[in-house]
Amino acid sequence: MNEKNLPIKFFEKRKKYDDRDTEGGGSSKVPSWVLSGVELKNHAASLQNEINNVKREFSAWKSEGKKLPMIISSTIKEDAIAKSHRSKISGILESDGKDNIIGLWGSDRLLSLVTNEQLLNNILNNISDTQNMAQLISSIEEIDVFRPYIERDEQEKVYKIKLINYNDYDLNLLSMINFEESCNKNGVNIQSKTRYTPELIVYRITIDNVEQLDLLEEFEGLFSAEPMEQFEVTLDWLDEEVEIVIKKPREDIEYPIVGVLDTGISKNKYLDSWIIEKKFTSYPEEYQDNKHGTFVAGLVAYGDELNESQTATLDGIKIFDATVYPDIKCRSMRMRYFS
Fold first, then answer.
1. At 323, phi and psi to the nearest 5?
2. Portion of the chain with pLDDT greater than 70, in percent
3. CA 48 to CA 125: how far, in whole Å?
4. What residues have CB less than 8 Å from 32, skipping those under 6 apart?
5. DSSP assignments along 144-180, one per residue
6. In this predicted structure, what is the pLDDT of residue 107?
7. What are the backbone angles phi and psi of residue 331, rounded to the nearest 5°?
């Protein structure tokens, strides 16, 4: 793969400071939150114990013949989320030379892959070096094997299921196939499968008994299982129908242009005159599903009208259509995980 085409990846929590401030990083002053002395040694020993527990679970993971990588959750101290400290943390989690970090869970937990024991040995060696790695050791509050979030409700039979996004098409596909096979094997009915984004698929399933939920919890690619919220809508609740008037751009106004980088935009009577002729796409029309992109473009052009409000400060916006998310069928399927 050409190096310049590799994806850009970063993680950060929402900041409370001004991005225009000059970031520190050249100072040799040790941050006030860095541990020292007995406190540092005790924390390092605690982390070493946690990593050894992870190593034992990883050995069991391999012996059980799991098909997907194990995920570890590293809780990061809030002060260490700052840009000047993140590279040290990501460096230790990817010290085996692989792109292991797959995301930030909540505001302070990094999720990363473990595919070999060498990575865990590298982490253990760094954590053991209290003399040179005090800042790194102080940055990490705990390391543990990731456990899926399960919300149990004995009265509820319908659940919403999310799988782990491995940031890898083949692994995500393998996870979906294995999950659906597991559901079929254990008598779990999949009512629907909805693709919210190319990476996020949400399943709607029915659980007949607690044993089925227990088996579901053991699935290696599970991210969360929650009772599916139920909504009831009747026509009686609609007091009146809102009619959206078709807007047309004026020739004497130069409108700002907003790029919609999505699944593509289908032309219709509401959007035709607002979409500029120039567009970008790398995918033939037969590999496009424009539903989501059209929905987003509709909100851009008719947000006030759809919400019966007047919050936009512009009288209109031209739209540039950039189709960057294809339909799933246009993705190439590499079969190395099925050999």
1. -85, 100
2. 81
3. 9
4. none
5. EE---EE---TT--EEEEEE---S-HHHHHHHHHHHH
6. 80
7. -80, 140
Pairing of strands 318-323, 275-281: parallel
Q: Determine the longest span between alpha carbons in the chain, in angstroms.
A: 73
Burial of 42 (0-12, 13-18, 19+ CB in 10 A): exposed
Tokens (6 digits) for 51: 């990593």
CB count within 10 Å of CB 11 equals 15
In three-state secondary structure terms, 118 is helix
Tally of residues, the chain: 339
Tell me the pLDDT tens digit for each residue of 169-182.
Answer: 899 999 999 999 99
Question: Are residues 270 and 246 in contact, defined by beta-carbon separation less than 8 angstroms?
Answer: yes
Number of DSSP helices (H) and strands (E) in the chain, helices first: 7, 12
Look over the chain and give the mean of its residue pLDDT values, rounded to a whole number.
81
Beta 101-105 vs 140-145: how paired, if at all?
A: unpaired
Query: In whole angstroms, what is the distance from residue 189 CA to residue 183 CA?
Result: 7
pLDDT tens digits, 112-151: 999 999 999 999 999 999 999 998 899 999 999 999 998 8
Instruction: Yes or no: say if 146 and 80 are a contact pair by the CB < 8 Å rule.
Output: no
Beta-bridge partners for 72: 112, 145
Q: Which two tokens stand for residue 205?
A: 């399933």
The residue type of 322 is A
